[in-house]
Amino acid sequence: MAFQVSTEMDGKVAKVTLVGDLDGSSAPAFKEAIDAIDTANTEKLVLFLDKLEYMASAGLRVLIFAKQKMGAAADLYAIAPQEMVLDTMEKTGFIQSVIVADTFEG
Amino acid sequence: MDILSRIDIHPTHTSSDGKFKLRRGRPEPFGASLVPGGVNFSVFSSYATACTLVLFEKHAKEPFAEIPFPDEFRIGNVFNMVVFALDYENLEYGYRMEAPFPAAERGQPAIHRFDRQHILLDPYAKVIGGRDVWGQTPDWEDVYHHRARIAFDDFDWEDDRPLEIPPEDQIIYEMHVRSFTRHASSGVKESRRGTFAGLRDKIPYLKELGVNAIELMPVFEFDEFENSRPNPQNPDQLLVNYWGYSTVGFFAPKAGYAATGKLGMQVDELKAMVKELHRNGIEVILDVVFNHTAEGNEYGPVISYRGLDNRTYYMLTPEGYYFNFSGCGNTLNCNNPIVRDMVLDCLRYWASEYHIDGFRFDLASILGRDPWGFPLANPPLLEALAFDPILAKCKLIAEAWDAGGLYQVGSFPAFGRWAEWNGKYRDTLRKFLKGDSGQVGSLAQCVQGSPHLYAASGRVPATSINFITAHDGFTLRDLVSYNHKHNEANGENNNDGSNDNDSWNCGWEGETDNLGIQALRFRQIQNALILLLVSQGVPMILMGDEMGRTQYGNNNTYCHDSELNWLDWGLLEQNNHLFEFCRHAIAFRNAHPVLRNTGHFRNRDYVGSGLPDISWHGTKAWYADWSAETRTIAFLLCGRHAKQGTVTDNTIYVAANSHWQAHWFELPQPPAGTQWHVFANTGAPVPDNVWAPGTEPRLENQQGILLGDRSVVVLLAK
After folding, report:
1. Cα(B70)–Cα(B55) distance, rounded to whole angstroms?
2. In a domain, A28, yes or no
3. From residue B241, how far is each of A53, B107, B224, B300 by CA, in Å?
4. Could you give the number of structural domains in chain B?
């Protein structure tokens, strides 16, 4: 499925919605979206993942990049990841770097 | 002020087909490294005259590009080149080598084995594809089986680093990644069984057991299909290279051990496992196999080293046959400076990039042989490893023998750093346990950390990695259940595996319903575990011994991807009394520093406690009978001398009776103001055989204790 990424700033919360397959060809667009976030004015990075169907190594790389770019003080949320994506985050240990929730309120 | 952007990262050359922009690379580091805008490829060969980089898309049957290294890009014997604008997430690469030597025929000896037809794996590959999912039948027609990929160094370690647990405080658990959780009874989610992620799920079990180090049988990339063949006893099943003591690539984790291997995320999964183990206070030691490679002898496959530089990487006879000190077809030429540097680079990489805490070197004596096979007095590789700044806090453990007859337990060139798997400890404990005569003197050395082997050369007790069982040989349950090996399932007519097991079946060969024999076996297992855990040095427990794992008498299960190797977690419930005994014995060791001394005993009182640091007893207090037919011995550890008198501990008394008759042991007086309490008595029925540390009951008769036949008692003065 074609990959789409959209970003919305809500105060100090950056909301990023990912749709489709996040692989080597689509990861650069995701990284570009993360790059564009003003870290200094962002306290939470919220990734809406319910429509993300697949994540390859390249996708994980950008997630790690997002976490490291945000720094330890900011929280990274993964909202409603599908089973494959959640499973990959669990197996690779990335789950420890992210707050997983069904919904985001706040 | 504007800063001038880098001008050294732009292409200067174009490939001959015009498709790729290139630039002169850097010879170091070897391997493929990400540089701005591209990938730096660097590969060494002493005798090749030309090299071609071969590029594939992931899993593609045919390469999408072949780029010869321009002549001017070679520095010395290193071909190096930057290729720009590669999709490195989706890239696999290899090399073709050319040299003016005739191609070697398979099966024939040869000094050089260059052949442009072969696509060769980079020895420094950090990720290797091709066997992404364990047991998935490869495409045998593939032109490139083990495919180098590029790794990323972006793992989020947070504040993790190697734990640096003092060696004498370690309790090692030797295990196989796949065997640990592959069995359905592991309770691990199916997609994670037999993987790094599965192991991570079972960390709470390791914590409950109380060990603080795991030693992983090989996790470098290997090929489970190497020498695979149908199981003669079950043709539907393949016999495979299950243990993995045959390395394909020294820098890459075994993809088939990762639940995410098919996604190429094995690096992340292994690092996440290490990080979580560290978070739980457990170190990770890797069993590394530098004595040979997966390329075998003259008949073996061309994977990497022999096609890149056969003469450098391997020990060869003058005719070009492979020396076979490893028993596995070839011998890596570890004291050639090139290979030595590769080994050092490799271990530095694992220590720094994966936060590995230590290494156990398989058949380490080979690492001390010169290129012609002769043992060196001061092997440069062992010295380099001992003094390396990056490895400075890593545990270095030698399996101090090889298949060529070199046996160096007690004499391995240590440079003040190397510990040893103490094979003599194993042999003595086994002989004593089965009641052989003439063992009490040797046993006394063993429980002291083998000072007869190590003290004179200034090597500390923790030099001795004490073990009774390891992956090679019987499990502990089989050690007390079989007199002879039963390796028929290996398809080698029971000729493989050791014949010198020093085992005793307790009266019946194999499984039995006889309750008396079962009870005796249970007692013998407890005797082994408790003696191991009260010995000075570093105890090592084999995975599953704490719950009575059996291999049904097979003492060499290297080829079985089956329940013969998989840990059956149902045993935990079935033999819970054994697990409880082991758990308490580990907790007892952890609670008592007097069992974990940093230096050897001096056999005298040097703190003014009124007791020597260690004293020897027998059935009579203060009188040890060292004669050949004696099978009773006891020792007293003075708590005031714990850790060379730097901490105060309880005084501990250990009595062992390997005789087939009960014996009354007269007890030495406990220190003033204390009384003897019973921590363990293997001759007592469950649950009075062991007590949780801190809950030990007072011994009723403070003057003496009856040790049943073949039993061990541990008392605590408090």
Report:
1. 16
2. yes
3. 36, 22, 4, 14
4. 1
pLDDT given for residue B402 in this prediction: 86
- Reply yes or no on whether the pLDDT at B89 is more than 90: no
Q: CB–CB of B245/B254 below 8 Å?
A: no
Q: Is residue B623 part of a domain?
A: yes
Q: Inter-chain contact A57–B197, Cβ cutoff 8 Å?
A: no
Q: Is pLDDT at B1 greater than 90 in this prediction?
A: no
Residue B284 scores a pLDDT above 80: yes
Cα–Cα distance for residue pair B199/B221, rounded to 1 Å: 18
Query: Domain of A16: which CATH number?
Result: 3.30.750.24
pLDDT, tens digit, for every residue of B598-624? 999 999 999 999 999 999 999 999 999
Q: What ipTM was reported for this prediction?
A: 0.87
Residue-level pLDDT at B669 = 97
Q: Return the structure tokens found at B506.
A: 């307790």
- Alpha-carbon distance of B460 to B444, in angstroms, equals 16
- Per the domain annotation, does B636 fall within a domain? yes
Whether residue B223 lies inside any domain: the answer is no
Q: Which residues contact A96 (CB under 8 A, 6 or more apart)?
A: B272, B275, B276
CB-CB contact of B40 with B26 (8 Å): yes
Residue B74, CA distances (Å) to B80, B171, B420 in order: 6, 49, 42
What's the mean pLDDT in B646-651? 97
Its domain, for residue A17, covers 4-101
Helix (H, G, I), strand (E, B) or coil at B633: strand
**What residue numbers bound the domain in which B609 lies?**
600-717
For Cα atoms B291, B292, B298, give the angle at the middle one, nearest 5 degrees.
145
- Among A24, A91, A92, the residue with its CB nearest the CB of B89 is A24
Which of A24, A57, A97 shows the shortest C-beta gap to B265? A57
Q: Which residues contact B395 (CB under 8 A, 6 or more apart)?
A: B167, B170, B283, B285, B357, B358, B359, B419
- The DSSP H or E segment spanning B477 is helix B476-479
Q: How far is the alpha carbon of A13 from chain B, nearest alpha carbon, in Å? A: 23
Q: Assess whether pLDDT exceeds 90 at residue B103.
A: no
CB contact under 8 A, B155 and A64: yes
pLDDT in tens, B492-527: 999 999 999 999 999 999 999 999 999 999 999 999
E strand spans, B460-576: 464-467, 538-542
